[in-house]
Amino acid sequence: MKLNKDFLWGGAVAANQCEGAYLEDGKGLSPMDILPTVQLGRKEAMYHPELALEKDYGYYPSHGAIDFYHRYKEDLELMEELGIKAFRTSISWARIFPDGEGEPNEAGLQFYDSLFDECKKRHMEPVVTICHFDTPLALTKKYGGWGNRALIDRYLNYCRVLFKRYGKKVKYWITFNEINMITHIPFFGGGMVIKEDENVSQIVYQAAHHQLVASALAVKMAHECDEGLMVGCMLAAGSFYPYSCNPEDVWEAVEKNQDSYLFIDVQARGKYPSYAQRIWKEKNVTLNMKDGDEEILRCNPVDYIAFSYYSSRLAGVSPDINGKVADGNAIYTLRNPHLDITPWGRQIDPMGLRITMNDLYDRYQKPLFIVENGLGATDKIEADGSINDDYRIEYTRNHIKAMKAAMEDGVICLGYLAWSCIDLVSAGTGEMDKRYGFIYVDRDNDGNGTLERMKKKSFYWYQRVIESNGEKMD
After folding, report:
1. From which residue to which does any coiled coil extend (predicted)?
2. For 78-90, how does the pLDDT look when each residue is reduced to its tens digit (9 = 90+)?
3. Dist. CA 215–CA 185, nearest whole Å
4. Using CA atoms, how far apart are residues 37 and 349, in angstroms rounded to an integer?
5. Which has the closest alpha carbon to 443: 455, 431, 457?
6. pLDDT score of 1
7. Could you read off the pLDDT of 371-418 as tens digits, one per residue?
8. Residues 185-200: tens digit of each pLDDT
9. Of 278, 290, 384, 431, which has the highest C-beta tally within 10 A?
10. DSSP-derived secondary structure for 342-371
11. Quick one: average pLDDT of 55-59?
12. What does 221-250 look like in DSSP terms, one character per residue?
């Protein structure tokens, strides 16, 4: 099928993975700023942030990242040459409110003014994530993160500043990046440090409720600011398959999918699904809702469903298969014997994107927006300076074909934003050598390198895809 001429081809980054300048111009600390590379203990720091708050790991990749803060004009010039029509980034909450509250930091506001102006100058639609695993560390220390209802007001004060300042420059907003990740990595998703003797489920589901209320009120605020603003939710997507046709495996997959969709059900439908009661009972969760919360959720659903897709997932109940795990995934999944796997443990399943898109659209009947999809791989610079990343081309081509097939199935999709248009720090591992971009950045896992930008073979391939609106993919 031929795509609509307004289809948003583009690329995506996140402030905490690309900007660097971690304390410059008044910026406060964010969760990523205390996480080292995986070689230095990133997993320990992510899952035990109480250690990260005290320990000195020596090198922190987000502190410099790829220096997008100083090089954004150069990078956007390359992206204009690439031809992208939409550029997704996030705003660093701690760059606008260094302490997460109080008065906004004008230097931070001016940076994003300049960034969005540059996007518009280059005919790129900004797609902006308000909170991308980026709750200011000051709010973790003072309030305990999103487990405290006080963060709703802090978030809304932040949103109020953003919509007022950038409402005429940014049409597409995402309230929280991959909101379902809060149950898997609470420090990422909610800025929370949970003690060993606490009921983790109670804390994360309560924190998620606070985010859902905050998200709904942000939708309301945005629409009051400008009815033309589009506000979406976002999940880390990837449908769970049953390991076999054993009904127990099938039911396990159903439950895993419900776990993933729970928060998006609320944001899209305006209420908690009936199965939420079962989940809370099983996990010994008693949700504390205030009067008016249900009305807030009901009256302010999102305008579209944004999602990241890297792979499908697999669930089963047999002890014999539960040791066959695909490592490298924040969301637990079994190893699918029918799929290839990357060196970082991520399974490659383009058909899974078509399945996931059909699942989401059938469930919500709202426009979808693929805001992350890409392959993390080691890239080699040849003697002649070329970077022949045919594996990235193949991955992206097959996923775009799957997306188009889903659209032929009747799914409405606003756009495809590759993760990423440029190499950046991996959120999961903190590595630079786990490269996703069409543009190479000369920086290694230890922070060495010139930061020179170089176009990969995939750059020219994606350029042709965009020029032809998805028709030329050879």
Report:
1. none
2. 999 999 999 999 9
3. 19
4. 27
5. 431
6. 79
7. 999 999 999 999 999 999 999 999 999 999 999 999 999 999 999 999
8. 999 999 999 998 899 9
9. 431
10. -TTS-EE-HHHHHHHHHHHHHHH-S-EEEE
11. 92
12. HHHHH-TT-EEEEEEEE-PEEESSS-HHHH
pTM for the full model? 0.96
Amino acid at 285: V
Regarding the domain delimited by 8-467, which CATH topology (the fold level of the hierarchy) does it fall under? Answer: TIM Barrel (3.20.20)
**What is the sign of the dihedral through the CA atoms of 443, 447, 448 and 452?**
positive
Is the Cβ–Cβ distance between 128 and 66 less than 8 Å?
Answer: no
Q: How far is CA 222 from CA 108, 130, 164, in A?
A: 21, 12, 9
One-letter amino acid at 386 equals S
Residue 328 has pLDDT above 80, yes or no: no
Mean pLDDT taken over the chain: 95
Compute the distance between CA of residue 30 and CA of residue 52 in angstroms, rounded to an integer: 12
- Residue carrying the six token digits 């504390």: 288
Which phi-psi region, left, alpha or beta, contains residue 341 (left: φ > 0; alpha: ψ -120 to 50)? Answer: beta
**Residue 125 among the catalytic residues:** no
Q: Which residue carries 């300076």 as its tokens?
A: 385
Please answer whether residues 233 and 179 qualify as being in contact, where contact means their C-beta atoms are separated by less than 8 angstroms: yes
406: three-class secondary structure by DSSP: helix
Q: Which residue type, as a one-letter code, is found at position 287? A: L
State whether residue 422 is helix, strand or coil: strand
Catalytic residue among 101, 125, 252, 372: 372
Q: What angle do CA 220, 143, 219 make, to 5 degrees?
A: 10
The rounded distance, in Å, linking the Cα atoms of 384 and 193 is 49
Name residue 272's amino acid: Y
Tokens coding 200? 């983790």
Q: Which two tokens stand for residue 145?
A: 């993160």
